[in-house]
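idk why but the lab printer keeps eating my pages so im just putting this in chat instead. protein + heme C:
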Amino acid sequence: MKSWGRILFGGLPLLFVFGCPDLIPGDECTEDADCAAGEVCTNGNCVAEAECDTDDDCAAGEDCVNGECVADGGNGGDPVAGEAFYNANNCAACHAADGSGGLGPDIRVVSSAEIFANLSGTDPHTGGTVAGVTQDDADDLEAWLATQ
Ligand code: HEC
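predcted complex ->
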């Protein structure tokens, strides 16, 4: 009788040690294998896996932006490069950080042809031209602006 009791009660603390972590919020997992398919372990929680890491993970006509596949604006532009171009050339000063407009108009839905015409000087542009701008740059800008 004495030895049965020791086995029963001696085993209880172990049950808590191994049984409880699942129930503590934020301690759902320690590695991806603890989570369901399509989920990864982040800070102890199972969260949906990012849809993509690079453009190659997305369908044709889509680019990977912040882990999500988004339409690239139709011209194969790269939104990440577009955002970098936008920031490097201070477009936000007149068109706002997201292209929604300020001193200049909302340019979130303009075509890459329109963008190229403005930045190359074909169309007069209050914001001036960008030396060496290419149609590719304009495609990238269109792709990024389309995500805003
Ligand atoms: C000094 C302010 C200013 C800056 C900086 C500026 N723009 Fe503009 N932009 C304007 C204004 C004002 C217009 C309205 C038409 C005009 O004056 O050319 C305009 C028009 C445009 C248009 C045409 C919109 C349409 O509906 O036809 C595009 C595209 C554009 N800007 C893109 C850009 C990009 C990309 C940059 C950064 C490389 C930029 N702009 C920087 C002021 C600016």
